[in-house]
Amino acid sequence: MLRKILKWTGGIIGVLIAGVLIFYFTMHIKVNNKKDKIYNVDVRMFDIPTDSATVAAGAHIYATRGCADCHGAELEGQIFIDEGPIGTLYGTNLTSGKGGRPADYSDRDWILALRHGIRKNGKSLMVMPSYEYYKMSDQDLGALIAYCKSVTPVDHVTAEPRLGPLGTVLAGIDKLPLIPAEKIDHAYKPGAVIPKGPTVEYGKYLSMSCTGCHQPNLKGGDSPIPGGTYVRDITTAGNVGKWSEKDFIAVLRTGQTPEGRAMKNEDMPWKMTNQYSDEELTALYRYLKTL
Ligand code: HEC
Ligand code: HEC
Question: Cβ neighbours of residue 242 under 8 Å, at least 6 residues apart?
Answer without folding.
Answer: 258
